[in-house]
Amino acid sequence: MRWGVEKRLEFIEFRLFWEGGINRADIVDQFGVSVPQASKDLTLYEEKAPGNLIYDKSAKRYKAADDFKPVFMQPNASTYLAHLRETNGGASGVTEAWLASAPEHDALPIPHRRVEADVLRDVLKAIREGHSIEVFYQSMSAKKPSPEWRRISPHALGNDGLRWHIRAFCHIDHKFKDFILSRCMKTRKHGLSGASANDDKLWHDRFVVALAPNPALSESQRSIIAQDYEMTNGRTEVMVRKALLYYFLKRLRLDFADKLDNPHEVPVVVANRAAFDAALAEATA
């Protein structure tokens, strides 16, 4: 089956499963195909998934049968919520939303971080060609209140969920560091790399973070947290690059677990804390 056809059949099934119905116009509007093609798609779906469709003559719409069984997709709440997020203008990982009748919803807005296109293009070129590059960078260090030109050898980009940074070897500090992409104001002068990407041990090494429900919660609360995070025997493991451990700690507020009086504000804690702290110390040294 051609990819385009299979994608439209998946769309038909998505609408049937999550919204209860579909018509030809939905397929035409979503994919830009002709009405006859949309009719063929619905007929093909009926052949491939017999018994899933019921035609409602009064509504002129196909509805999902009571014993509907998906054939072209695996029902996943995360997939639906990603489409819902997309209707709100968020970067959810889907290229376009498949929802026709989304429930009223909203999402927490995240302030836009400006990244200069020319800067990003030049950084990508340096990564691709294995070069170093000078960036006019504004540090947040009290010792560097003004921007300065710094030569770096970039090899990767990282994201902490809120902002992008460049993972690069710093020719001033002689070590691999993170440079916030939106604070790189200009670029210039490609040159020889100061280090190989393979030498960035903290980027390539990963640490398994073991998470468990906060023991200060009630038994029932710990049980729902374990279910919420898909834990097995009260524990889940997350593989994180050592270079991203600090951001992981901050994003999940794991550094506040022992400091807040209200455990409900930090529902999970690090179960392998000693090993985690050691790995974090290595990553932030």
UniProtKB/TrEMBL annotation:
PROSITE patterns: WYL. Transmembrane segments: none annotated. Residues 209-275 form the DNA-binding transcriptional repressor CapW C-terminal dimerisation domain. This is Transcriptional regulator. It comes from Salibaculum griseiflavum. It comes from the Bacteria. Residues 5-85 form the DNA-binding transcriptional repressor CapW winged helix-turn-helix domain. Pfam families: BrxR_CTD, WHD_BrxR, WYL. The lineage of its organism: Bacteria, Pseudomonadati, Pseudomonadota, Alphaproteobacteria, Rhodobacterales. PANTHER family: PROTEIN PAFB, PTHR34580. Residues 118-183 form the WYL domain.
